[in-house]
Structure formats: C-alpha cells, structure tokens
C-alpha cells in the first residue's frame, strides 16, 4: 500500500511540475482583440488584455514570478507596451 501511495504522490508531483508555464490565446472579436493568458498555476488563474485600435487594458495580471516573467515577455514579443496600466479606460476614437 505504501508503494502505491508513493507512486501516486510521485506521479502527481511530476504532473504538477509539467504544468508550470501557461499558454496564450488571442480572440479577434471584430473591433477589438481579447488576449487570454491561462497561467496553469495552483490557482488556475487567467489574465486578460483587451486590445483596441488606440489603446489596451490589462486585467487580472499573473501572481507568481514565473508567470509574470512569461506574461511580460509575451507582451514585448507582441509589441504591446511593457508598462500597461491596470484598469485604464479603453477610449476608441
């Protein structure tokens, strides 16, 4: 019984380690794009960037260091401003 328990515990630890990084999805919704970052962290969070023609808004930024660095790297690769403000109003002109 102890061997089965240790095997299951090891398996769960390996699966949890394999899911440390998140993934990104971009949804084109016509007049704006919704960027979704699924963190795959212990809390199962998702972060959102709403991108319009003249600005963007970030909501629910990641909490853990690995996810924050991955989120910031992705914003730079997508040429989104690295210092976006939270809850900044999106004004379309």
From TrEMBL:
Where does the signal sequence lie? 1-18
Q: Does the keyword Signal apply?
A: yes
Q: Which UniProt keywords apply?
A: Signal
Q: Which domain of life is it from?
A: Bacteria
**Protein's name according to its UniProt entry:** Uncharacterized protein
Organism in which the protein naturally occurs: Bacteroides uniformis
């Amino acid at each position: 019984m102890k061997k089965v328990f240790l095997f299951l515990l090891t398996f769960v630890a390996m699966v949890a380690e394999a899911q440390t990084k998140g993934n990104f999805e971009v949804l084109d919704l016509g007049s704006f794009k919704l960027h979704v970052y699924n963190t795959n962290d212990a809390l199962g969070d998702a972060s959102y960037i709403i991108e319009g023609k003249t600005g963007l808004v970030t909501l629910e930024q990641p909490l853990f260091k690995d996810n924050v660095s991955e989120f910031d790297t992705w914003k730079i690769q997508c040429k989104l401003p690295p210092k976006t403000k939270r809850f900044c109003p999106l004004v379309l002109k």
